[in-house]
Design brief:
Number of helices: 0
Largest sheet: 5 strands, antiparallel
Number of strands: 5
Strand order of the largest sheet: 1-2-3-4-5
Radius of gyration: 13 Å
Distance between the termini: 25 Å
Helix content: under 10%
Low-confidence stretches: none
Strand content: over 45%
């Protein structure tokens, strides 16, 4: 992916410092990429994926981390 830099992003109502990484996929069909796919990682040494946003052929989807486990 391409590191697009630091960005403040509101996730579950809380503004967090994140690092945005842009990714290109080679999916086809309904999930074919039609725009950007960005992964927002925590801006710390763990780089936890907090949010994924993607524009695909059938629309747009957003995935948010629901719960973090200590593993």
């Amino acid at each position: 992916g391409i590191n697009k830099g630091n960005i403040n992003k509101t996730i579950k109502g809380k503004t967090r410092k994140t690092r945005e990484v842009a990714i290109t996929t080679k999916l086809s069909g309904a999930m074919e990429q039609k725009g950007g796919l960005s992964v927002f990682l925590s801006d710390d040494v763990r780089h936890i994926p907090l949010l994924i946003e993607a524009d695909v052929k059938i629309g747009r989807f957003t995935l948010e981390l629901n719960k973090k486990s200590n593993w």
